[in-house]
Specification:
Layout lengths: L1 E3 L1 H9 L4 E5 L4 E5 L5 E5 L18 H7 L4 H5 L4 E5 L19 E2 L2 E2 L7 H29 L2 E9 L11 E4 L5 H16 L11 E3 L8 H9 L3 E9 L12 H25 L2
Parallel strand pairs: 1-2, 4-5, 4-8, 8-11, 9-10
Antiparallel strand pairs: 2-3, 3-5, 6-7, 9-11
Helix pairs in contact: 1-4, 5-7
InterPro entries: N-FG_amidohydro
Protein name: N-formylglutamate amidohydrolase
GO molecular function, one term: hydrolase activity
Length: about 280
């Protein structure tokens, strides 16, 4: 993996050069093994939290980890185009618009001992901006090559905080064109429900049950690209112990292996059913 500037990353994309890179400031990674008609994204996979923020932060490392989406990049790492955040959403949230991307409080708890200095805010927002410059170039190029694109927007959520039964998989479709893509979304939800997980975990799947797909990553792409469908795909954290931070590698491996088969099937269906 090369360390590249945002300008070089965008230049590579526009020249259709396959490459794997981490951004110059280590804020995100991008792999393009080939310019396939689909993208896998894991915007909340990151856990990095820059040192200049440590002393001012009231949340512990575990509290930050609890609200992040660990291993979501790993679940799709075998696919040809993968973009993922490296920084914690507590530094800046790639799934929020720039004006709300830096938290003042998080999940009911104040985040900072004292307000962030403007220089710190600017640095975080520059990372946010750079990520979306690359997203824009990437989707634009794939639409240019294939006429359309499919984006798998991977997330996870804490199921134990819910006081009712919640699905292992949730697909958020409130902000996609459901007249055009509703049937494809339902098909993807059905495929997710067929995933077989170890340890006796039943792989239930629902649409708009816990989350509706209101994230900025989905909205940005949907609003700027008329021929791209974003599938906001959430897995409940059955692949780890939310309360201790222990990961269950056998569950993560099972998800990755089956997504390796199911995602290309969904891409094929998208290609055949979308004009």
């Amino acid at each position: 993996m090369h360390r590249l500037s945002v300008e070089r990353i965008i230049s590579n994309i526009e020249s259709e050069i396959p490459f794997e890179a981490v951004s110059e400031d280590y804020s995100f990674t991008l792999k393009i093994a080939e310019y396939a008609p689909y993208i896998c994204g894991a915007v909340h996979d990151g856990h990095q939290f820059r040192r200049s923020l440590w002393e001012n932060c009231l949340h512990t490392e575990y509290e930050r980890w609890y609200e992040e989406d660990p291993c979501t990049k790993q679940m799709v790492q075998s696919h040809p185009v993968v973009i993922a955040g490296c920084d914690s959403r507590f530094e800046y949230d790639l799934n929020r618009a720039p004006e709300t991307a830096i938290y003042s409080d998080a999940w009911g708890k104040q985040l900072w001992k004292k307000p962030l200095p403007e220089a710190e805010r600017r640095l975080s927002l520059q990372k946010h901006s750079d990520f979306y410059r690359v997203v824009d170039a990437l989707v634009r190029q794939i639409e240019k090559i294939h006429g359309k694109a499919l984006v798998f927007d991977m997330h996870s959520y804490n199921w134990k905080r819910w006081e009712r039964e919640v699905p292992v998989w949730n697909l958020g479709t409130a902000n996609i064109d459901n007249d055009r893509f509703g049937e494809l979304a339902a098909s993807w939800s059905s495929k997710l429900g067929r995933i077989r997980l170890p340890n006796g975990i039943a792989s239930t799947s629902k649409i708009n049950d816990t989350f509706q797909g209101n994230g900025y990553f989905l909205k940005y792409i949907t609003q700027n690209f008329g021929n791209t469908l974003v599938l906001a795909t959430e897995i409940s954290k059955v692949y780890c112990d939310e309360m201790t931070g222990i990961l269950f590698p056998e569950v993560i491996a099972a998800v990755e292996k089956q997504l390796k088969e199911l995602i290309p099937l969904q891409v094929k269906e998208f290609s055949e059913k979308t004009p």
